[in-house]
Amino acid sequence: MLHSQISQHRNGNIFHNPIKDSEAPDYHEIVKRPMDLKTMKTRIKDGAISNSDEYQREIYLMFANAMMYNRPKSDIYRMAREMMIESEGHIRDFRQTEGFMSRGKR
After folding, report:
1. What is the mean pLDDT, run by run of 10 residues, along the chain of 106 residues?
2. pTM confidence score
3. For the chain, how long is the longest CA-to-CA vector?
4. For residue 86, how many other CB atoms are within 10 A of its CB?
5. CA distance 35 to 20
6. Which of 17, 31, 85, 93 has the most other CB atoms within 10 Å of its CB?
7. 47: alpha, beta or left, given left = phi > 0 and alpha = psi -120 to 50?
8. CB atoms within 10 A of CB 67
């Protein structure tokens, strides 16, 4: 649910797939731990991401990579920053629901 909300952001399509060498030849030299929405979805299905803390760490990694690799005035940098700020709200809302749900299970 949370991943779907964030993936559907208007800028989500640029973060959907891993960066290819043909798109950015030096990307993997600069970014040591690449992350994208498709990889995150796979990690969720495989159980490697199992809670909102782990999810937040990975989504912030994705945005940090984009903001580190791209210049601050570039479109990609601005898109990553905008999506990160909006994602923070989704994560916060999810955590409130998550806390409410766990209290109800006692």
Report:
1. 95 97 96 98 96 96 98 97 97 84 54
2. 0.90
3. 52
4. 15
5. 12
6. 31
7. left
8. 18
Contacts by residues 15-23 (CB-CB < 8 Å, ≥ 24 positions apart): 15/62, 15/66, 15/80, 15/83
Residue for token digits 């898109």?
A: 79
Coil, helix or strand at residue 70: coil
What pLDDT is recorded for position 106?
Answer: 47
Rg (CA), the chain: 15
Collapsed DSSP state (helix, strand, coil) of residue 1: coil
Give CA–CA dist 41/11, Å, rounded.
Answer: 17
